[in-house]
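Data availability excerpt. The first of two example chains:
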Amino acid sequence: MTDAAELHRRTQELLAAHPPRSTDRTDFLKARFDAGLAWVHFPEGLGGLGLPRSLQAVVDAELTAAGAPDNEPRRIGIGLGMAAPTILGFGTDEQKRRFLRPLWVGEEVWCQLFSEPGAGSDLAALGTRAVRDEASGDWVVNGQKVWTSGAHNARWAILIARTDPDVPKHRGITYFVCDMTDPGVEVRPLRQITGEAEFNEVFLTGVRIPDAHRLGEIGDGWKVAQTTLMNERVSIGGSRIPREGGMIATLAKTWRERPELRTHDTHQRLLKLWVDAEVARLTGERLRQQLVAGQPGPEGSGMKLNFARLNQEITGLELELLGEDGLLYDDWTMRRPALVDFMGRDAGYRYLRAKGNSIEGGTSEVLLNIVAERVLGLPSEPRTDKDVAWKDLAR
């Protein structure tokens, strides 16, 4: 049997044993995971069947046609797009069994504790400390993280902390899974220009993390974090959308429905952005095809860089096109949403929220360096801190 035929058979067996209309949503998702149909490229026993990533489309199409529930990927995007591939790549067998199933089903939401007030663009300069308690073997963590999406809803966090201040900054970092219910974790909202607070700052005071929740070797945290960051940029900038989908769809809809707003200049700008959006969509398809053969590379940084530029230009033109109507704003109420809803709000919200696209997931300035050095092969910038211990760096 071909892989596709086998997937068809397994999918039909799942639907017959757990009819979507009469099966509890969570129970169905658990059964799907156990059948290896969650992410078919993952190993058997971990929600997959060890098949090519491209065959996931076979399963998804059949389940969608049958009216089966999904796992709300936008709500649990950090877990799916960042935590899961990192756990798969560096976790122990026990960690994979413990975390991947509830993560995929959506029973446990994840967040990312990476950026700090003094270590955003220069992430490797982070100062949050993790010190080993020799008596228990646990790690005791103290520090502050910032710009943490969804921390107010998260059960777990992926965390990088400094475990050795006596070596250069990239070498003294270790990667952990942090329990967000620990009494030493304090989450505070960061109200944004949109009025919402999907971001947070997180204070860690005496947080105890068992060594069993360490991912990778001690001091190898930067290497582990690269897997997270590359997957993050692919998930942000390379998501699958239909032709004229995403942000350009809203602008095109406004153009078609409001002919009185049109000018020759805005028409030319719209055409250029439409073409740019289509090029980005097709490039994303090519990137996903490359993923079938291995892990994401630095090309994802280019996709994320373009995603931010396009979103900001598209929302800017939409606001300009609407004229006086574009000055209206539907609601400044302080909310702490579970996800970002660009399409469910007005043009003013989209314009303001898109400003964050060039910061979150890696600033555009940092991504330009990554593309220049790792994609184009240009010489790297001079670094004066390469061989200096972290504790001796100027701060």
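And the second chain:
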Amino acid sequence: MFDSLRELWLRGIAFNPAAPSDVLVRLLDRAAGETGPLMCGGRDLPDAVVDAALRDQAEVIRRALARNQHVDPARLAPLATDPSGLVRASLAGGPRHYLRFVRPLPDDILVTLLTAQDGGEDGKVTENEIVAELESSRQIPLSFFRRMAGHEHPELRIRATWRWQSLHPAQRAGLLDDPDPAVREAAQDRNWVLDPERVEAALPSFGSRKRFKLDTCALSPALVEQCFADGTVHPLARNQHTPAYAVARLARHPAAEVRVLAATRPDLGPDLAAELRTDPDDDVRMHARLHPFSRTWTEYETIHRIIDHGPDCTCPITEPFTGSNPEPAVGPSPDWFAACAGSEEPILRRVAASWPGLSAELVKTLARDDDEEVRIRLACHHPLAPPHLLLDVFVTHPAHRPHLLTLPAFPCTGRAPLIGHTDPEVRALAAADPALPDPPVEDLDDGVRRAAAANPSLAPDALEALLADPRTAEGTAANPALPIQRMHALLDRCLNGTTTQSGAVER
């Protein structure tokens, strides 16, 4: 019986919100097996535990900590220079599981990883492989590249060229005239996307991928005509470098989906905008009504990140939605988002609901919006979204549940009325409500039983019996009502018993 309970007790204690540092540090012991890495990577940790994990000789512990999304990333700075390249790569790669919002790393960590001269003392990865992990991790905010355009370190100015078109014109000019020849070369290499002749010459080499370049590169008249001739006009309709005469042709294109894309372009003339507002296609007319809110390309892109995504959209939450920055090159102004919130067009209200800088007053209004997608976006994106709204979206839209459970405002109480719900995930949520008088520890679903066993409203004398039952042992070990001395006693048995080696892992 002990063997079947041991791992359950260890996992439960590892995620017990009331477990103090001295309890959690014991789980870093080799005898705790996989529990230590699971804890280091999967929950918020007290400073003392973070310090212990940073000093731990086991690489597997430091690698798990490097991927922790809950710990203040500034505390992870020592891992950027860890002797193990695998630890550095884990920090660069970020959370192992898909998250809609990935917290960016602080500048000092990014600078350390991007300027490293080696991949660690173990030689298992190279510095370039670590950078490749970082590039795909979503942990580098777009604003970082703008800040690095004037950095004293030439390597970081070279990195700034990676997001060439997102830099201000003055920054691009400065990099093209940089005193360091390697920086100038990198800038010239990236600048090809803004040179129509170089684009025309380079495009054939991209093969089937050239369509993606047509979205963003400067286009020669010959390329524009070629796009019309072979029907590749959708990229033209979104490309801000498309010349005015071509925009007029796109606005009158026979395909409604092309006119839709052209209808919100900032450079669409007033006559064409008025023409599209009377278009025979409903969708085109609706997009044309959005045109007054699309005065800049950042506003255009912000609107188009929302259009046609649907209520179960789980796209990554990235800039410009990660903060309030009125700089036009980064994102639209707060006044623009406020105007969107008051619009009669649901799409614009969805845009506003996706911005976390919206005022509390507007949040209160949008929380009652008639459009369901507005309410869903508000719940998923805004820190002031009311808890009842988060709970409503959790119940009605399972796609958003993993993200909603990561939000600080998600309600811990008020769930009890859902205890009879047919969906076991919803029942499990209700089973954890401390206000629930009788947690359903006998529910047929494993997740519901585990949540019920972790409910602190359980009577103390009930915990021992539940600890001894494999169906409820893990949840009970995670119960914050479990006395600390009992946690230590369980660890004494699990870590010092005769069968502890069965759970050990090679590190």
